[in-house]
Amino acid sequence: MSLRLAAVDLGASSGRVMVADVAAGNLELTEVHRFWNGGVQVQGTLHWDILHLYRETLAGLRKAALGGPLDGIGIDSWAVDYGLLDGDGRLIGNPVHYRDSRTEGVMDEVLRKVPAEDLYAVTGLQQLPFNTIYQLAAERSLDRAERLLLIPDLLAYWLTGVVGAEATNASTTQLYDVTTRSWSEDFARRVGIPVELLPELREPGQVIGPVLPEVAEELGFGSSAEGQDARRVPVIAVGSHDTASSVVAVPAEDGANFAYISSGTWSLAGLELPAPVLTEEARRANFTNEGGVDGRTRFLKNVMGLWILQECLRVWGSDDLQQLLKEAADVPAFGVLIDPDDPVFLAPGNMPARIDEFCARTGQDKPATRAATVRCVLESLALAYRRTLRSAREIVGREIDVVHVIGGGSQNELLCQLTADACGVPVLAGPVEASALGNVLVQARALREPLPDLSAMRALVRATHRLRRYPPQGRPADWDAAESRVFGTR
């Protein structure tokens, strides 16, 4: 029998509710609702509008239910951010955005209490100033809080009334032991975070609970003609960090030496491994070990993704990206290059001006046209991917024969070709909606669809979704020289 499943997939710039029909040899995904997401500045603090996200989630689920009874609901989102609940289970304020400035300087304070080497040996996490541990160290509401819920768990709580923390997202907090797959209560105490805030962990595929009666009524759920009580629709824990869900849907062949780039507002570039790599070499290279579905490890680095280009388009007031990409393809290679991970590009703002400032600081002429700026951003991203994946290969000691680019960036033909050229191996692009696909695949298995492992899930994705192959072109020596310009010699 076919399963009808809803995936709530929240990205840092947009959210969507997708409906999937999953059956033997069939995996069809339809978008039923899409909505804006982004930061809201209030009195000097950058927040998420979480009530807007919840309202739009309900609107999407209501539309999904109009097409027929749902068999399950799963929620995934970006990582690290959270809401705090008081003793009555009520939210204490809008969650703060990870791009907010409140964590400036906090990392150094925390590392005086817990050395970086100790943190990495337990959590295996990349040092980023907005990791949850640093946000909590800067938090002013801990004295009123009873529970911490990461964003997908907060929405699941409002749907079901059940408190918990899904493990793949918990692994991004820098408060999670990647070896024992449990909270690191020792680190929480040493940093001054009440251990009682950390909820019980749950694994992908675990049923959280049915939607609450009042939520079911608001969504228009009722009893179906077949006698199914649709009010008992389960909310299922998936790989609730959207990258964990995306990696489930990487359409890799069994036994392939593959790397992946989950390309969107952020780019997550790395390898899937059976266990974390907690060596000093990995720490110094600032690689992260995040939990994956079925006990896998996502060994990766965050690379500033299409965020820079998105901000350029916002400042320009332009929505004609395809024309700009066409023009950028004709711009001479390696004219202007930036380090996309330079801190100057992290916060929202006038990104074209920041690129010009970076060029002035590094002795380059600024891009002459908007198309040249686009070429600069994409070529620089490809260089960052090249550097990251080569470093991952060297640390792990495994060759990379193919790079799978998944997510929204897989539609960007110029970026995919530049990535293949930079990495010197073929790029396979697609699927676009990888996080939603991984979401529903984990739901389907939880509801006893015959998808016993990741291999079976990925085979279903390959059989039902078109991929585009980009063979590498150009001269590796040119990319060597360009990388040296941006990042220095190896």
Instruction: Please count the helical segments.
Output: 18
Low-confidence stretches: 224-228
Quaternary organisation? single chain
- The residue-averaged pLDDT reads 95
Radius of gyration: 22 Å
What's the β-strand tally?
A: 21
Query: What helical percentage do the residues reach?
Result: 25-40%
Biggest pleated-sheet summary: 7 strands, mixed
Termini distance?
A: 55 Å
What fraction of residues sit in β-strands? 15-25%
- Helix-strand makeup class: alpha+beta
Question: What would the principal axes of the Cα set say about the shape?
Answer: globular
Across the major sheet, the strand order is 17-18-16-15-19-20-21
Polypeptide structure, described:
This protein is an alpha+beta fold and 490 residues long. The protein contains 18 helices and 21 strands. It has helices spanning 50-66, 106-113, 116-123, 132-137, 151-160, 167-170, 185-191, 213-219, 242-248, 280-284, 307-316, 321-329, 351-361, 370-396, 413-423, 434-446, 454-464, 476-487, and strands spanning 3-10, 14-23, 26-36, 39-42, 45-48, 72-76, 82-85, 147-150, 165-166, 176-177, 182-183, 201-202, 207-210, 234-236, 258-263, 266-273, 288-291, 297-304, 402-406, 427-429, 468-470. Strands 17-18-16-15-19-20-21 form a seven-stranded mixed β-sheet, with helices on both faces. The chain has a four-stranded mixed β-sheet with strand order 3-2-1-6, with helices on both faces. Helix 9 packs across helix 16, helix 14 (370-396) crosses helix 15 and helix 14 packs across helix 18. The longest helix is centred in the C-terminal third of the chain and has 27 residues, at 370-396. The radius of gyration is 22 Å and the shape is globular. The chain starts with a strand and ends with a helix. Residues 224-228 have low confidence and may be disordered.
